[in-house]
Amino acid sequence: MAAMTAPAAAPSAEPLLSTKGVTRWFGGLCAVDHVDFTLPAGEIRALIGPNGAGKSTFVGLLAGRILPTEGRVTFAGEDVTRLPAHARMARGMAYTFQITSIFANLALFDNVALAVQRRLAPGQSLATEVEAALARVGLDDRLDQPAGDLSYGHQRLLEIAMGLAQNPRLLILDEPTQGLSDGEIEGFKVLVREVAKDATVLLIEHNMDVVMSLADRITVLDMGAVLAEGTPAEIHADPAVQRAYLGG
Amino acid sequence: MTGLMKPGALHVGVALLLLAANFLLPEYHHGAMARVLTLAVFAMGYNVMFGYAGLLSLGHALFFAAGLYGMGLPMQHLGLAAEPAFLLGIFSGALVAAVVGALALRTAGVAFMIVTLMFAQAGYLTILYFLEYTRGDEGFVIAREARTVFGLDLAAPEVRYLAAWLLFTVAMFVVLALVRSPAGRVLVAIRENEERARMLGYDVARYKLGAIVVSGALCGAAGAAYGLLFGYVGATFASVQYSILPLLWVLLGGAGTVLGPLLGATFMFYLIDLSSGITDAYMLIAGAALVALTLFAPAGLLGELRRRACPWLP
Questions:
Q1: Bridge partners of B220?
Q2: Domain ranges of chain A
Q3: Minimal Cα distance from A112: which residue of B?
Q4: Separation of first and last alpha carbons in chain B
Q5: Any residues with CB less than 8 A from the CB of A188 and at least 6 apart, and which?
Q6: A101 touches chain B (CB under 8 A)
Q7: Any CB–CB contact under 8 A between B204 and chain A?
Q8: What domain of life does the UniProt record list for this protein's source (chain A) (predicted)?
Q9: Which of A27, A52, A239, B130 has its CA 20 to 30 A from that of B215?
Protein backbone atom coordinates (compact mmCIF):
# COMPACT_ATOMS: atom_id res chain seq x y z
CA MET A 1 0.00 0.00 0.00
CA ALA A 2 2.79 2.37 0.90
CA ALA A 3 4.76 1.32 -2.15
CA MET A 4 4.35 4.68 -3.90
CA THR A 5 5.60 6.80 -1.06
CA ALA A 6 8.08 4.55 0.71
CA PRO A 7 11.51 5.85 -0.29
CA ALA A 8 13.55 2.87 0.83
CA ALA A 9 12.71 -0.60 2.05
CA ALA A 10 12.36 0.21 5.69
CA PRO A 11 12.47 -2.88 7.90
CA SER A 12 8.78 -2.57 8.70
CA ALA A 13 7.22 -0.12 6.30
CA GLU A 14 3.73 -0.87 7.48
CA PRO A 15 2.78 -2.13 10.91
CA LEU A 16 0.99 -5.47 11.13
CA LEU A 17 -1.45 -4.04 13.63
CA SER A 18 -2.37 -0.53 14.63
CA THR A 19 -5.09 1.30 16.48
CA LYS A 20 -6.13 4.93 16.21
CA GLY A 21 -7.99 6.55 19.07
CA VAL A 22 -9.50 3.26 20.13
CA THR A 23 -11.86 3.73 23.08
CA ARG A 24 -14.22 1.55 25.03
CA TRP A 25 -16.72 2.62 27.64
CA PHE A 26 -18.47 0.21 29.98
CA GLY A 27 -21.36 2.22 31.34
CA GLY A 28 -19.68 5.16 33.06
CA LEU A 29 -16.24 3.56 33.06
CA CYS A 30 -13.74 4.27 30.34
CA ALA A 31 -11.74 1.02 30.24
CA VAL A 32 -9.67 1.97 27.19
CA ASP A 33 -9.19 5.65 26.46
CA HIS A 34 -8.11 6.84 23.00
CA VAL A 35 -5.21 4.45 22.56
CA ASP A 36 -2.93 4.84 19.55
CA PHE A 37 -0.92 1.67 19.24
CA THR A 38 1.39 0.35 16.56
CA LEU A 39 2.85 -3.13 16.33
CA PRO A 40 5.40 -3.77 13.57
CA ALA A 41 5.57 -7.23 12.05
CA GLY A 42 8.06 -9.63 13.59
CA GLU A 43 8.17 -8.03 17.01
CA ILE A 44 7.57 -9.56 20.41
CA ARG A 45 5.60 -6.95 22.29
CA ALA A 46 4.66 -7.17 25.93
CA LEU A 47 1.66 -5.33 27.32
CA ILE A 48 1.94 -4.64 31.02
CA GLY A 49 0.16 -2.53 33.56
CA PRO A 50 -1.41 -2.71 37.00
CA ASN A 51 -4.61 -4.68 37.58
CA GLY A 52 -7.56 -2.91 35.97
CA ALA A 53 -5.34 -0.97 33.57
CA GLY A 54 -7.46 -2.17 30.64
CA LYS A 55 -5.02 -4.70 29.17
CA SER A 56 -7.51 -7.50 28.62
CA THR A 57 -10.14 -5.09 27.31
CA PHE A 58 -7.57 -3.67 24.92
CA VAL A 59 -6.58 -7.05 23.46
CA GLY A 60 -10.29 -7.91 23.37
CA LEU A 61 -10.74 -4.88 21.12
CA LEU A 62 -7.86 -6.02 18.94
CA ALA A 63 -9.21 -9.56 18.63
CA GLY A 64 -12.80 -8.44 18.09
CA ARG A 65 -14.27 -9.99 21.24
CA ILE A 66 -15.28 -6.47 22.24
CA LEU A 67 -16.25 -3.73 19.80
CA PRO A 68 -14.86 -0.24 20.38
CA THR A 69 -17.03 2.72 21.32
CA GLU A 70 -14.88 4.78 18.98
CA GLY A 71 -11.60 4.55 17.11
CA ARG A 72 -10.21 2.23 14.48
CA VAL A 73 -8.27 -1.04 14.40
CA THR A 74 -6.18 -1.91 11.35
CA PHE A 75 -4.72 -5.36 10.76
CA ALA A 76 -2.44 -6.25 7.84
CA GLY A 77 -3.47 -3.11 5.98
CA GLU A 78 -7.19 -3.70 6.39
CA ASP A 79 -9.62 -1.81 8.60
CA VAL A 80 -11.04 -4.58 10.81
CA THR A 81 -12.84 -2.33 13.31
CA ARG A 82 -16.29 -3.71 12.49
CA LEU A 83 -15.24 -7.29 11.72
CA PRO A 84 -16.45 -9.96 14.14
CA ALA A 85 -13.83 -11.94 16.03
CA HIS A 86 -14.00 -15.09 13.91
CA ALA A 87 -13.33 -13.09 10.75
CA ARG A 88 -10.26 -11.50 12.33
CA MET A 89 -8.96 -14.91 13.39
CA ALA A 90 -9.54 -16.15 9.85
CA ARG A 91 -7.35 -13.27 8.63
CA GLY A 92 -4.39 -14.48 10.65
CA MET A 93 -4.84 -13.63 14.32
CA ALA A 94 -4.73 -16.23 17.04
CA TYR A 95 -5.82 -15.63 20.60
CA THR A 96 -5.29 -17.54 23.82
CA PHE A 97 -7.53 -16.83 26.76
CA GLN A 98 -6.49 -15.54 30.15
CA ILE A 99 -8.56 -18.25 31.78
CA THR A 100 -7.65 -21.52 30.08
CA SER A 101 -10.20 -22.29 27.41
CA ILE A 102 -9.89 -25.64 25.69
CA PHE A 103 -12.29 -28.40 24.67
CA ALA A 104 -12.03 -30.39 27.89
CA ASN A 105 -14.12 -33.35 26.71
CA LEU A 106 -12.31 -33.74 23.42
CA ALA A 107 -9.03 -35.52 22.83
CA LEU A 108 -5.86 -33.46 22.46
CA PHE A 109 -5.85 -34.46 18.81
CA ASP A 110 -9.26 -32.89 18.19
CA ASN A 111 -8.38 -29.75 20.14
CA VAL A 112 -5.42 -29.08 17.90
CA ALA A 113 -7.13 -30.43 14.76
CA LEU A 114 -9.71 -27.67 15.18
CA ALA A 115 -6.91 -25.13 15.10
CA VAL A 116 -5.21 -26.78 12.13
CA GLN A 117 -8.03 -27.85 9.81
CA ARG A 118 -9.13 -24.33 8.89
CA ARG A 119 -5.76 -23.47 7.38
CA LEU A 120 -4.84 -26.90 6.04
CA ALA A 121 -3.54 -26.66 2.48
CA PRO A 122 -4.40 -29.38 -0.04
CA GLY A 123 -1.88 -32.19 0.24
CA GLN A 124 -1.08 -31.50 3.88
CA SER A 125 -1.93 -34.24 6.32
CA LEU A 126 -4.08 -33.22 9.29
CA ALA A 127 -2.53 -35.87 11.52
CA THR A 128 1.03 -34.80 10.68
CA GLU A 129 0.31 -31.13 11.30
CA VAL A 130 -1.48 -31.85 14.58
CA GLU A 131 1.34 -34.02 15.86
CA ALA A 132 3.90 -31.42 14.87
CA ALA A 133 2.02 -28.71 16.76
CA LEU A 134 1.72 -30.88 19.86
CA ALA A 135 5.37 -31.88 19.62
CA ARG A 136 6.34 -28.22 19.93
CA VAL A 137 4.92 -28.16 23.46
CA GLY A 138 5.94 -31.75 24.24
CA LEU A 139 2.42 -33.19 24.37
CA ASP A 140 2.57 -35.35 21.26
CA ASP A 141 2.57 -38.57 23.27
CA ARG A 142 -1.00 -38.02 24.49
CA LEU A 143 -3.00 -37.56 21.32
CA ASP A 144 -6.03 -39.57 22.44
CA GLN A 145 -6.23 -38.31 26.00
CA PRO A 146 -9.16 -36.00 26.84
CA ALA A 147 -7.80 -32.50 27.27
CA GLY A 148 -9.63 -32.11 30.59
CA ASP A 149 -7.47 -34.84 32.11
CA LEU A 150 -4.30 -32.80 31.67
CA SER A 151 -2.74 -30.92 34.56
CA TYR A 152 -3.34 -27.17 34.61
CA GLY A 153 0.12 -26.38 33.28
CA HIS A 154 -0.29 -28.84 30.44
CA GLN A 155 -3.68 -27.38 29.58
CA ARG A 156 -1.99 -23.99 29.28
CA LEU A 157 0.59 -25.52 26.96
CA LEU A 158 -2.15 -27.17 24.92
CA GLU A 159 -3.82 -23.83 24.47
CA ILE A 160 -0.55 -22.32 23.31
CA ALA A 161 -0.13 -25.25 20.90
CA MET A 162 -3.59 -24.46 19.53
CA GLY A 163 -2.47 -20.88 18.98
CA LEU A 164 0.72 -21.98 17.21
CA ALA A 165 -1.11 -24.58 15.14
CA GLN A 166 -3.06 -21.84 13.40
CA ASN A 167 0.19 -20.51 11.89
CA PRO A 168 -0.95 -17.02 12.85
CA ARG A 169 0.57 -13.78 11.65
CA LEU A 170 -0.24 -12.32 15.05
CA LEU A 171 -0.35 -14.41 18.20
CA ILE A 172 -2.07 -12.74 21.14
CA LEU A 173 -1.33 -14.38 24.49
CA ASP A 174 -3.28 -13.23 27.52
CA GLU A 175 -1.17 -14.08 30.60
CA PRO A 176 0.21 -17.29 29.13
CA THR A 177 2.57 -18.21 31.97
CA GLN A 178 0.04 -17.91 34.76
CA GLY A 179 0.07 -21.21 36.65
CA LEU A 180 3.12 -22.62 34.87
CA SER A 181 6.04 -24.02 36.84
CA ASP A 182 9.51 -22.47 36.52
CA GLY A 183 10.62 -25.27 34.21
CA GLU A 184 7.55 -24.84 32.03
CA ILE A 185 8.14 -21.08 31.88
CA GLU A 186 11.67 -21.65 30.55
CA GLY A 187 10.22 -23.94 27.89
CA PHE A 188 7.59 -21.34 27.08
CA LYS A 189 10.23 -18.66 26.52
CA VAL A 190 12.11 -20.86 24.07
CA LEU A 191 8.84 -21.56 22.28
CA VAL A 192 7.87 -17.90 21.92
CA ARG A 193 11.30 -16.96 20.56
CA GLU A 194 10.93 -19.69 18.00
CA VAL A 195 7.41 -18.61 17.04
CA ALA A 196 8.58 -15.02 16.69
CA LYS A 197 10.76 -16.03 13.75
CA ASP A 198 7.64 -16.16 11.56
CA ALA A 199 4.97 -14.42 13.59
CA THR A 200 4.36 -11.29 15.59
CA VAL A 201 3.64 -11.85 19.25
CA LEU A 202 1.66 -9.67 21.63
CA LEU A 203 1.57 -10.87 25.19
CA ILE A 204 -0.03 -9.61 28.34
CA GLU A 205 2.20 -10.75 31.13
CA HIS A 206 2.61 -10.19 34.85
CA ASN A 207 5.81 -12.16 35.25
CA MET A 208 8.44 -9.40 34.84
CA ASP A 209 11.21 -11.90 34.30
CA VAL A 210 9.36 -13.27 31.26
CA VAL A 211 8.62 -9.76 30.00
CA MET A 212 12.18 -8.50 30.37
CA SER A 213 13.77 -11.50 28.73
CA LEU A 214 11.29 -11.96 25.87
CA ALA A 215 9.96 -8.60 24.77
CA ASP A 216 11.57 -6.49 22.07
CA ARG A 217 9.45 -3.59 23.26
CA ILE A 218 7.01 -3.03 26.08
CA THR A 219 3.82 -0.98 26.17
CA VAL A 220 2.62 0.08 29.60
CA LEU A 221 -1.08 0.72 30.07
CA ASP A 222 -2.48 2.56 33.06
CA MET A 223 -6.06 3.72 33.58
CA GLY A 224 -6.88 2.70 30.02
CA ALA A 225 -4.21 4.87 28.41
CA VAL A 226 -0.65 4.29 27.20
CA LEU A 227 1.65 5.41 29.99
CA ALA A 228 4.93 4.54 28.31
CA GLU A 229 6.41 2.52 25.52
CA GLY A 230 9.99 1.44 24.86
CA THR A 231 12.62 -1.23 25.14
CA PRO A 232 12.77 -3.25 28.35
CA ALA A 233 15.72 -1.13 29.52
CA GLU A 234 13.85 2.14 28.86
CA ILE A 235 10.74 0.92 30.61
CA HIS A 236 12.78 -0.32 33.53
CA ALA A 237 14.29 3.13 33.92
CA ASP A 238 11.10 5.13 33.37
CA PRO A 239 10.13 6.93 36.58
CA ALA A 240 6.44 7.19 35.67
CA VAL A 241 6.27 3.44 35.13
CA GLN A 242 8.05 2.80 38.38
CA ARG A 243 5.54 4.95 40.22
CA ALA A 244 2.52 3.34 38.58
CA TYR A 245 3.51 -0.25 38.31
CA LEU A 246 6.86 -1.45 39.46
CA GLY A 247 6.33 -0.01 42.90
CA GLY A 248 9.68 1.81 42.74
CA MET B 1 -5.90 -47.11 10.93
CA THR B 2 -8.15 -49.18 13.18
CA GLY B 3 -9.53 -45.84 14.26
CA LEU B 4 -11.19 -45.53 10.86
CA MET B 5 -12.00 -49.19 10.24
CA LYS B 6 -13.99 -49.98 13.36
CA PRO B 7 -16.77 -47.39 12.98
CA GLY B 8 -17.08 -48.16 9.28
CA ALA B 9 -17.40 -51.88 9.94
CA LEU B 10 -19.90 -51.31 12.75
CA HIS B 11 -22.23 -49.18 10.66
CA VAL B 12 -22.05 -51.43 7.62
CA GLY B 13 -22.77 -54.33 9.98
CA VAL B 14 -25.82 -52.60 11.45
CA ALA B 15 -27.14 -51.82 7.96
CA LEU B 16 -26.70 -55.48 6.89
CA LEU B 17 -28.30 -56.75 10.08
CA LEU B 18 -31.34 -54.57 9.51
CA LEU B 19 -31.48 -55.77 5.90
CA ALA B 20 -31.38 -59.39 7.05
CA ALA B 21 -34.16 -58.59 9.52
CA ASN B 22 -36.45 -58.04 6.52
CA PHE B 23 -36.33 -61.76 5.83
CA LEU B 24 -36.18 -62.99 9.41
CA LEU B 25 -38.63 -60.89 11.42
CA PRO B 26 -42.12 -62.22 12.10
CA GLU B 27 -44.89 -60.22 10.48
CA TYR B 28 -45.77 -58.02 13.44
CA HIS B 29 -42.20 -56.97 14.19
CA HIS B 30 -41.50 -56.56 10.51
CA GLY B 31 -44.19 -53.87 10.33
CA ALA B 32 -43.14 -52.33 13.61
CA MET B 33 -39.51 -52.05 12.58
CA ALA B 34 -40.42 -50.33 9.30
CA ARG B 35 -42.09 -47.69 11.46
CA VAL B 36 -39.17 -47.54 13.91
CA LEU B 37 -36.59 -47.15 11.13
CA THR B 38 -38.51 -44.21 9.67
CA LEU B 39 -38.85 -42.58 13.06
CA ALA B 40 -35.16 -43.25 13.73
CA VAL B 41 -34.37 -40.99 10.77
CA PHE B 42 -36.43 -38.30 12.50
CA ALA B 43 -34.37 -38.91 15.65
CA MET B 44 -31.11 -38.81 13.70
CA GLY B 45 -32.10 -35.46 12.26
CA TYR B 46 -32.84 -34.22 15.76
CA ASN B 47 -29.51 -35.57 16.96
CA VAL B 48 -27.50 -33.59 14.39
CA MET B 49 -28.75 -30.42 16.01
CA PHE B 50 -28.98 -31.49 19.64
CA GLY B 51 -26.34 -34.18 20.04
CA TYR B 52 -23.64 -32.63 17.89
CA ALA B 53 -24.27 -28.88 17.66
CA GLY B 54 -25.70 -28.70 21.19
CA LEU B 55 -28.89 -26.87 20.18
CA LEU B 56 -31.88 -28.06 22.19
CA SER B 57 -35.02 -27.59 20.13
CA LEU B 58 -38.52 -28.26 21.37
CA GLY B 59 -40.07 -27.70 17.98
CA HIS B 60 -38.93 -30.53 15.73
CA ALA B 61 -42.49 -31.70 15.09
CA LEU B 62 -42.60 -28.70 12.77
CA PHE B 63 -39.82 -30.08 10.56
CA PHE B 64 -41.34 -33.56 10.53
CA ALA B 65 -44.72 -32.07 9.64
CA ALA B 66 -43.12 -29.85 7.00
CA GLY B 67 -41.91 -33.01 5.29
CA LEU B 68 -45.21 -34.78 5.82
CA TYR B 69 -47.36 -31.97 4.42
CA GLY B 70 -44.76 -30.83 1.89
CA MET B 71 -45.15 -34.32 0.42
CA GLY B 72 -48.84 -34.91 1.20
CA LEU B 73 -50.57 -31.69 0.15
CA PRO B 74 -49.23 -31.59 -3.42
CA MET B 75 -50.04 -35.29 -3.82
CA GLN B 76 -53.55 -34.84 -2.50
CA HIS B 77 -54.47 -31.61 -4.24
CA LEU B 78 -52.22 -31.41 -7.29
CA GLY B 79 -51.91 -35.08 -8.08
CA LEU B 80 -48.13 -34.95 -7.84
CA ALA B 81 -46.37 -38.32 -8.13
CA ALA B 82 -44.74 -39.86 -5.06
CA GLU B 83 -41.11 -39.43 -6.14
CA PRO B 84 -41.14 -35.63 -6.67
CA ALA B 85 -43.46 -35.26 -3.67
CA PHE B 86 -40.88 -37.00 -1.49
CA LEU B 87 -38.15 -34.63 -2.68
CA LEU B 88 -40.49 -31.72 -2.07
CA GLY B 89 -40.98 -33.01 1.49
CA ILE B 90 -37.22 -32.97 2.11
CA PHE B 91 -36.98 -29.51 0.64
CA SER B 92 -39.88 -28.25 2.81
CA GLY B 93 -38.17 -29.55 5.92
CA ALA B 94 -34.93 -27.80 5.03
CA LEU B 95 -36.65 -24.55 4.05
CA VAL B 96 -38.79 -24.33 7.19
CA ALA B 97 -35.69 -25.16 9.26
CA ALA B 98 -33.70 -22.41 7.54
CA VAL B 99 -36.37 -19.78 8.28
CA VAL B 100 -37.01 -20.90 11.87
CA GLY B 101 -33.28 -21.30 12.46
CA ALA B 102 -32.40 -17.84 11.16
CA LEU B 103 -34.91 -16.31 13.59
CA ALA B 104 -34.47 -18.64 16.57
CA LEU B 105 -30.67 -18.38 16.53
CA ARG B 106 -31.00 -14.80 17.71
CA THR B 107 -31.64 -16.47 21.06
CA ALA B 108 -29.79 -19.16 23.00
CA GLY B 109 -30.44 -21.68 25.77
CA VAL B 110 -33.88 -21.63 27.33
CA ALA B 111 -35.07 -18.83 25.06
CA PHE B 112 -34.08 -20.94 22.04
CA MET B 113 -36.16 -23.83 23.39
CA ILE B 114 -39.16 -21.59 23.89
CA VAL B 115 -38.87 -19.93 20.48
CA THR B 116 -38.64 -23.29 18.67
CA LEU B 117 -41.59 -24.57 20.71
CA MET B 118 -43.64 -21.51 19.76
CA PHE B 119 -42.80 -21.86 16.07
CA ALA B 120 -43.90 -25.49 16.17
CA GLN B 121 -47.16 -24.54 17.88
CA ALA B 122 -47.72 -21.85 15.27
CA GLY B 123 -47.16 -24.50 12.61
CA TYR B 124 -49.61 -26.85 14.28
CA LEU B 125 -52.26 -24.14 14.51
CA THR B 126 -51.64 -23.18 10.88
CA ILE B 127 -52.39 -26.74 9.84
CA LEU B 128 -55.63 -26.66 11.84
CA TYR B 129 -56.52 -23.25 10.44
CA PHE B 130 -56.32 -24.39 6.81
CA LEU B 131 -58.85 -27.11 7.53
CA GLU B 132 -60.13 -27.06 3.98
CA TYR B 133 -56.83 -28.32 2.61
CA THR B 134 -55.35 -30.24 5.54
CA ARG B 135 -58.52 -31.72 7.06
CA GLY B 136 -57.01 -30.70 10.41
CA ASP B 137 -56.84 -33.28 13.19
CA GLU B 138 -58.74 -35.78 11.15
CA GLY B 139 -56.11 -35.67 8.43
CA PHE B 140 -56.29 -37.39 5.10
CA VAL B 141 -55.33 -40.72 3.62
CA ILE B 142 -53.01 -40.96 0.65
CA ALA B 143 -54.57 -43.36 -1.81
CA ARG B 144 -52.79 -46.67 -2.18
CA GLU B 145 -52.53 -46.28 -5.97
CA ALA B 146 -50.55 -43.08 -5.50
CA ARG B 147 -48.09 -44.63 -3.06
CA THR B 148 -45.76 -46.17 -5.58
CA VAL B 149 -42.15 -45.32 -6.30
CA PHE B 150 -40.59 -46.54 -9.52
CA GLY B 151 -43.53 -48.89 -9.92
CA LEU B 152 -43.13 -50.46 -6.48
CA ASP B 153 -46.11 -50.55 -4.14
CA LEU B 154 -45.05 -48.92 -0.87
CA ALA B 155 -48.03 -50.38 0.95
CA ALA B 156 -46.69 -53.92 0.41
CA PRO B 157 -44.92 -54.97 3.64
CA GLU B 158 -41.68 -56.11 1.98
CA VAL B 159 -41.35 -52.98 -0.12
CA ARG B 160 -42.27 -50.78 2.80
CA TYR B 161 -39.63 -52.31 5.05
CA LEU B 162 -36.95 -52.11 2.38
CA ALA B 163 -37.85 -48.50 1.58
CA ALA B 164 -37.61 -47.61 5.28
CA TRP B 165 -34.33 -49.53 5.47
CA LEU B 166 -32.92 -47.69 2.46
CA LEU B 167 -33.90 -44.31 3.87
CA PHE B 168 -32.42 -45.19 7.25
CA THR B 169 -29.19 -46.51 5.77
CA VAL B 170 -28.67 -43.48 3.56
CA ALA B 171 -29.43 -41.13 6.47
CA MET B 172 -27.09 -43.05 8.75
CA PHE B 173 -24.16 -42.79 6.35
CA VAL B 174 -24.92 -39.13 5.65
CA VAL B 175 -24.80 -38.41 9.38
CA LEU B 176 -21.70 -40.56 9.85
CA ALA B 177 -19.91 -38.71 7.05
CA LEU B 178 -21.00 -35.37 8.48
CA VAL B 179 -19.86 -36.01 12.04
CA ARG B 180 -16.52 -37.40 10.91
CA SER B 181 -15.87 -34.45 8.60
CA PRO B 182 -14.06 -31.26 9.63
CA ALA B 183 -17.45 -29.52 9.78
CA GLY B 184 -18.71 -32.17 12.20
CA ARG B 185 -15.72 -31.56 14.43
CA VAL B 186 -16.56 -27.84 14.43
CA LEU B 187 -20.16 -28.58 15.47
CA VAL B 188 -18.92 -30.61 18.43
CA ALA B 189 -16.48 -27.81 19.25
CA ILE B 190 -19.36 -25.33 19.30
CA ARG B 191 -21.31 -27.61 21.63
CA GLU B 192 -18.33 -28.00 23.94
CA ASN B 193 -17.00 -24.43 24.03
CA GLU B 194 -18.62 -21.93 21.74
CA GLU B 195 -16.35 -19.00 22.55
CA ARG B 196 -13.20 -21.03 21.94
CA ALA B 197 -14.59 -22.21 18.59
CA ARG B 198 -15.29 -18.60 17.62
CA MET B 199 -11.78 -17.58 18.64
CA LEU B 200 -10.35 -20.30 16.45
CA GLY B 201 -11.88 -18.43 13.52
CA TYR B 202 -15.14 -20.32 13.00
CA ASP B 203 -18.31 -18.46 12.10
CA VAL B 204 -20.39 -20.08 14.84
CA ALA B 205 -23.73 -18.71 13.67
CA ARG B 206 -23.24 -20.08 10.16
CA TYR B 207 -22.32 -23.54 11.41
CA LYS B 208 -25.33 -23.61 13.71
CA LEU B 209 -27.66 -22.60 10.90
CA GLY B 210 -26.08 -25.27 8.71
CA ALA B 211 -26.74 -27.89 11.38
CA ILE B 212 -30.37 -26.77 11.66
CA VAL B 213 -30.91 -27.00 7.89
CA VAL B 214 -29.37 -30.49 7.71
CA SER B 215 -31.50 -31.47 10.69
CA GLY B 216 -34.61 -30.05 9.01
CA ALA B 217 -33.88 -31.91 5.76
CA LEU B 218 -33.47 -35.23 7.58
CA CYS B 219 -36.62 -34.70 9.66
CA GLY B 220 -38.46 -33.61 6.51
CA ALA B 221 -37.32 -36.79 4.75
CA ALA B 222 -38.57 -38.84 7.70
CA GLY B 223 -41.94 -37.05 7.69
CA ALA B 224 -42.41 -37.42 3.93
CA ALA B 225 -41.41 -41.09 4.05
CA TYR B 226 -43.72 -41.75 6.99
CA GLY B 227 -46.67 -40.35 5.09
CA LEU B 228 -45.82 -42.33 1.98
CA LEU B 229 -45.17 -45.61 3.75
CA PHE B 230 -48.17 -45.54 6.06
CA GLY B 231 -50.52 -43.55 3.86
CA TYR B 232 -51.74 -41.02 6.36
CA VAL B 233 -51.17 -37.30 6.85
CA GLY B 234 -52.57 -35.68 10.01
CA ALA B 235 -52.05 -32.76 12.37
CA THR B 236 -51.14 -35.04 15.30
CA PHE B 237 -47.67 -35.30 13.80
CA ALA B 238 -47.26 -31.55 14.18
CA SER B 239 -48.32 -31.57 17.84
CA VAL B 240 -45.98 -31.01 20.76
CA GLN B 241 -45.81 -34.74 21.44
CA TYR B 242 -43.83 -35.21 18.24
CA SER B 243 -41.40 -32.53 19.36
CA ILE B 244 -40.73 -34.31 22.63
CA LEU B 245 -40.43 -37.83 21.22
CA PRO B 246 -37.24 -37.32 19.18
CA LEU B 247 -35.65 -35.66 22.20
CA LEU B 248 -36.49 -38.72 24.33
CA TRP B 249 -35.27 -41.18 21.72
CA VAL B 250 -31.99 -39.34 21.39
CA LEU B 251 -31.50 -39.00 25.15
CA LEU B 252 -32.21 -42.68 25.65
CA GLY B 253 -30.02 -43.93 22.84
CA GLY B 254 -27.20 -41.48 23.44
CA ALA B 255 -26.99 -37.89 22.25
CA GLY B 256 -24.07 -37.31 19.93
CA THR B 257 -23.78 -40.93 18.78
CA VAL B 258 -24.71 -41.94 15.24
CA LEU B 259 -26.59 -45.10 16.23
CA GLY B 260 -28.08 -43.77 19.47
CA PRO B 261 -31.26 -42.45 17.80
CA LEU B 262 -32.01 -45.89 16.30
CA LEU B 263 -31.41 -47.59 19.61
CA GLY B 264 -33.50 -45.05 21.50
CA ALA B 265 -36.40 -45.21 19.06
CA THR B 266 -36.38 -49.02 19.07
CA PHE B 267 -36.07 -49.22 22.84
CA MET B 268 -38.91 -46.82 23.49
CA PHE B 269 -41.19 -48.38 20.89
CA TYR B 270 -40.82 -51.84 22.37
CA LEU B 271 -40.91 -50.56 25.93
CA ILE B 272 -44.37 -49.12 25.34
CA ASP B 273 -45.38 -52.05 23.18
CA LEU B 274 -44.41 -54.69 25.72
CA SER B 275 -45.62 -52.88 28.81
CA SER B 276 -49.00 -52.20 27.24
CA GLY B 277 -49.33 -55.97 26.89
CA ILE B 278 -48.92 -56.32 30.67
CA THR B 279 -51.02 -53.52 32.08
CA ASP B 280 -53.22 -50.59 31.13
CA ALA B 281 -50.91 -48.37 33.13
CA TYR B 282 -48.16 -48.98 30.59
CA MET B 283 -47.00 -45.38 30.62
CA LEU B 284 -46.09 -45.90 34.28
CA ILE B 285 -43.72 -48.72 33.37
CA ALA B 286 -42.30 -46.73 30.48
CA GLY B 287 -41.85 -43.73 32.76
CA ALA B 288 -40.09 -45.76 35.45
CA ALA B 289 -37.72 -47.25 32.88
CA LEU B 290 -36.94 -43.79 31.56
CA VAL B 291 -36.24 -42.44 35.03
CA ALA B 292 -33.97 -45.40 35.80
CA LEU B 293 -32.04 -44.91 32.59
CA THR B 294 -31.63 -41.20 33.22
CA LEU B 295 -30.31 -41.95 36.70
CA PHE B 296 -27.93 -44.75 35.81
CA ALA B 297 -26.95 -43.92 32.24
CA PRO B 298 -27.30 -40.17 31.87
CA ALA B 299 -25.35 -40.24 28.60
CA GLY B 300 -27.87 -42.68 27.10
CA LEU B 301 -27.28 -46.31 26.15
CA LEU B 302 -24.60 -45.76 23.54
CA GLY B 303 -23.18 -42.72 25.27
CA GLU B 304 -22.57 -44.87 28.32
CA LEU B 305 -21.04 -47.63 26.20
CA ARG B 306 -18.72 -45.11 24.59
CA ARG B 307 -17.68 -43.72 27.95
CA ARG B 308 -16.96 -47.12 29.45
CA ALA B 309 -15.71 -49.33 26.65
CA CYS B 310 -15.69 -47.91 23.13
CA PRO B 311 -14.20 -44.40 22.98
CA TRP B 312 -13.95 -44.76 19.19
CA LEU B 313 -17.73 -44.85 18.75
CA PRO B 314 -18.77 -41.97 16.49
A1: none
A2: 105-167
A3: B200
A4: 15
A5: A157, A160, A176, A177, A180, A210
A6: yes
A7: yes
A8: Bacteria
A9: B130
Do residue A103 and residue B189 have CB atoms under 8 angstroms apart?
yes
Listed in sequence order, the residues at least 6 apart from A25 whose beta carbon sits closer than 8 Å to its beta carbon are A31, A69
Inter-chain contacts counted by CB atoms under 8 A, chains A and B: 58
Q: Which amino acid is at B203?
A: D
Query: With an 8 Å Cβ cutoff, is B189 touching chain A?
Result: yes
**pLDDT tens digits along A121-131:** 888 899 999 99
Q: What is the mean pLDDT of residues A213-218?
A: 94
CB contact under 8 A, A101 and B188: no
Beta strand ranges found along chain B (DSSP E): 140-141, 148-149, 152-153, 232-233
Give the predicted TM-score (pTM) of the model.
Answer: 0.90
Question: Which of B192, B201, B202 has its CB closest to that of A103?
Answer: B192
Rounded to whole angstroms, the Cα distance separating A49 from A223 reads 9
Q: Decide if A110 and B196 are in contact by the 8 Å CB cutoff.
A: no
One DSSP character per residue, B35-96 reads HHHHHHHHHHHHHIIIIIT----S-THHHHHHHHHHHHHHHHHH---HHHHHHHHHHHHHHH
State whether residue A1 is helix, strand or coil. Answer: coil
B248 and chain A: CB distance < 8 Å anywhere?
Answer: no
Per-residue pLDDT, B3: 55
Q: pLDDT tens, B85-130?
A: 999 999 999 999 999 999 999 999 999 999 999 999 999 999 999 9
Cα separation, B224 vs A226, in Å, equals 63
